Fold this sequence. Notes:
The protein is mainly alpha-helical. Helix content is 48%, strand content 11%.
Amino acid sequence: MSFTLPDLPYAHDALAEHGMSRETMEYHHDIHHKAYVDNGNKLIAGTEWEGKPVEEIVKGTYQAGAVAQNGIFNNASQHWNHTQFWEMMGPGKPGMPGELEKALTEAFGSVDKFKEEFAAAGAGQFGSGWAWLVKDTDGSLKVTKTENGVNPLCFGQTALLGCDVWEHSYYIDFRNKRPAYLQNFLENLVNWENVASRM
């Protein structure tokens, strides 16, 4: 199957009042994500990966410890990352389901402590990358960060929440204030019901 750019699950301006502008969404989804889709399709054409699910491609092309990943991995992983990212956000500011609040409290001490650790991971990621809340292979919840397009699939983990800390995700709205972007993401943009559904 070829990569397909998914529609946003909400209007381009649906998150604007919560700190992610229509302009950001148009650049991020319509240009950046589309480029990963288009480039990925070109790169997998005629290879063993053509027709394979994106998750299989990500896991099959990841090279642990590689300074720069190959083009197929980079585009496939960023396509997967962004597809999850759109779903992990929403305009309605839904409350956090009780089971998720309980799990975060058990794992981190409190929801606030989780948010602190998640924001610190994103702010501390040097250069481009992602901050994640994952369910690890042993079932425990952990906060991680990854460089560039690397994601939890590469380590056998389940991604519960991810935040894009590439500059194209926040520079229009927050300029160089990545910590403020992360704080706003956690307080105003996360669809906690979606996060809970991934557990």
